[in-house]
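[#protein-structures] MJ: dropping TRAP transporter large permease protein here for a structure pass
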Amino acid sequence: MTIVFTLAAMFALLLIRVPVAFALGGLGLGMLILGGFSPLMAPQAILSTLDGFILLAVPLFLLMSNTLLRAGVGNDLFAAVSAWVGHWPGGLAVATILSCGVFAAISGSSVATAATIGTVAIPEMINRGYNKRFVYGLLAAGGTLGILIPPSIPMIIYGFVTEESVIALFLAGIGPGIALLVLFIIFSMVYARLGGQEREPKRDWAERKRATFKALPSVLLAVLIIGGIYSGAFTPTEAAAIGFAAALTITAAMRVLTWEKLKLAIFDSMATTVAIILIIAGAKVFGKAITLYRIPQDISVMISQGIDTQLGFILVVTVVLLIMGLVFEALSMVLIMTPVLLPAALALGFDPVWFGVYMVIMVECALITPPVGLNLYVIQSVAKTRLGEVARGVLPFLLLMFLTAAILYVWHDLALYIPFKL
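AK: finished. structure tokens for TRAP transporter large permease protein:
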């Protein structure tokens, strides 16, 4: 019954629009007091959260992505990719997906990826006759690559909660990220061919060289970050700091970053960082309380007694995370559900790194499902359209994300080969 009352209280607080951070922290504190535990555990839990070295990567990656966003780096990136693949069937759609993939490898942020590439690609694709719903769905779903292709802020949080290697999680996200990107490209090309979409004229070599040269610094930045992490040259936190310094250098050298834009980037990063830290702090208090009430252990026992197969467990996890995604945003889902689901996953023999990647894919789905799918609101804002138009457009891409999750379940090495076997 404790589980039922806890969930009911949580949903009640969210329904009356209490911010997630305060709903989690307040409920956790209330549970500590009602359970006869010292309320001093709450500030102690918060303090232990805020001194985590790994969390330094979050504001630094946000600074990097917001600096690139404000400097308009997405324009050059999209133009360069379009110059090479624009003449393919569905060339602009393919260019959009590839641009999302490259920017995801720079920023680690789904929202920044959707906003940056969407600002450039949406008017371009609609002007060339692409169906609006398809365009909106493509950009909303393409933005989710930002939290799967490393670096990834949700993976940093998962690693922080589970004390797993963030580098291993980053590397494990590469295979599924590429698989999802390829599925998006194949679908876009088939959609364009069946829809009779006209191809773009093939660009000459001179135009390709010019566009590539302008976008080359952004591509090199992605290579620097991923290559440095993969080679062990620096930690994820150091990679974030180096990436931010490199982003400042690149945008300053290209003369596309003004003091006003830099101030806006810093302010946006600060506001997002504060929100993330508050959610983490609230989730830490809530996590402390449910641990003392033995709720994760009870759920783990309940699952292990009722479900004795890996497939059954994964189906339950998928349904639970999809339902949670209707009311929780990405980081809250990772923070709340990881301590609850991971013990049962380990008991059934799942690798914790693999399970983290699977959770991130499900979190991606939450980013494009109403009513709190952040990417839906980002694309709605950029395109100045109705939320329903964006939500209907993401449906085929949501199915492709489920397909990626199914492939990952059948073939664990899609995630585990690069970090552990390569």
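MJ: nice. The chain has one domain: 34-420.
AK: one more thing. The first helix runs from residue 2 to 15.
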